[in-house]
Specification:
alpha+beta, eight-stranded antiparallel beta sheet, five-stranded antiparallel beta sheet, 8 helices, about 30% helix, disordered N terminus
């Protein structure tokens, strides 16, 4: 539902900006992605705001609907114990905030276009922030702003400073760091308030977000005709949550030589899949195992490698799987590269020192300070310009 509402261009930019790892310790996350486009192609909104819990869109707003809306059943039912369907005032309030942010995004796009001495045309601005809570109790957070698909400025919670990579962003850095209490407010939101609301959302959607589904693991094998080596592919399918540890081991130790692996990818039913392959000498087959650890397993799995049957059917199946995966990856890479090249061609050369900062005293902020669905205390300075 949410994916149909958000334009592909915006989702690709989000994916490029903040990749997620699916291998390692189990984590839960609350993240927000706001994107504004000055001249979107036909049918795309100028502004989209998406909220994610554990990678799933749970709230959505865009400049077409102009309404903040829930995107998961548990968000429709719960809000501090109230039935959201009967709590119209809450959604009205959030809609008004989102509309204010939308207008501020338009102003910030004009400010940055002027600051970079660019002509009118296609320009994009983004804000991305959120927090993570790991199973071992450790926490993490980030706040990043982008312009034209590149990092514009990021917040360092340790030093309470903004990190600006170019002269144009330095203007914003000086402006924000001069505001009393702003940086401490950002730190408090990211490290405390965000975590509190993540825990609330996990309790609201516990039947979905806190479930575990054990992976199904199979190993397919084939023998290479050219050199007599064997290729073994370990398929890990149907697991939830996303985090998983899967590796090849030799004599009980993790083995990385002659191995390949894919990224963790979603299935249509909300679970995930993953694969990894290895090429070995048949004489050493007994030394290798496909090792899998996941929250859905009572104990780790260690699958032995079997002698390849070399049937035409199995060989053809493996080749088809590899070709499909390769095509999907190639298509995504081409799409991302194409978008970035398109941006580069549309962007005019700009001076290192900005000629003007038109509108820099306006009240527009939207993408650049928290004004989140979960906390009115984060609205401080929510209309500050870049």
């Amino acid at each position: 539902m949410a994916l149909r509402s958000a334009p592909l261009l915006l989702l690709v930019l989000v994916a490029v900006a903040v990749p997620e790892s699916g291998v390692g310790i189990s984590t839960h996350s609350l993240k927000y992605f706001y994107t504004g486009i000055s001249e979107p192609s036909q049918g795309q909104p100028h502004y989209v705001a998406l909220g994610y819990v554990d990678g799933e869109v749970f709230v959505h707003y865009d400049s077409h609907s102009r309404r903040m809306q829930p995107r998961v059943s548990w968000m429709e039912k719960y809000w501090d114990g109230q039935v959201l369907g009967q709590n119209d005032k809450y959604w009205d309030d959030q809609t008004q905030k989102a509309r204010g942010q939308e207008e501020a995004v338009r102003e910030n796009l004009e400010i940055l276009r002027s600051r970079y001495n660019q002509s009118e045309g296609l320009h994009t601005v983004q804000r991305m922030y959120g927090c993570e809570l790991c199973k071992d109790g450790s926490k993490g957070s980030f706040m990043q702003h982008g312009y034209e698909g590149r990092t514009f400025i990021t917040f360092d919670t340790e030093t309470l400073t903004w990190v600006a990579p170019d002269p144009q962003a330095q203007i914003t850095k000086r402006k924000w760091e001069a505001l009393p209490g702003m940086t401490q407010g950002q730190k408090t939101y990211l490290e405390e308030i965000c975590i509190e609301w993540l825990e609330k959302y996990l309790s609201y959607g516990n039947e979905t977000l806190l479930r575990t589904e054990a992976p199904k693991v199979t190993v397919n094998s084939r023998k290479e005709v050219e050199d007599g080596m064997e290729t073994h592919i370990c398929h890990v399918h149907g697991f939830y949550p996303r985090e998983i540890d899967a590796s090849w081991t030799r004599d009980g130790e993790v083995w990385l030589e002659d191995t390949l692996h894919a990224s963790v990818a979603p299935n249509a039913d909300g679970t995930y899949h993953y694969w990894l392959s290895i090429q070995i000498d048949p004489k050493e087959r007994d030394r290798y195992r496909c090792h899998v650890e996941h929250d859905g397993l009572q104990e780790p799995l260690d699958l032995e490698l079997k002698e390849p049957t070399n049937s035409k059917y199995n060989l053809r199946l493996i080749i088809i799987i590899i070709i499909i995966i390769g095509c999907v990856v190639a298509a995504l890479v081409c799409l991302i590269v194409g978008i970035l090249v398109f941006f580069k061609r549309r962007q005019e050369d700009y001076n290192a020192v900005p000629k003007s900062d038109r509108g820099s005293n306006s009240s527009g902020q939207a993408l650049f300070l928290p004004s989140d669905t979960e906390s009115s205390s984060s609205d401080q300075g929510s209309n500050l310009a870049v």
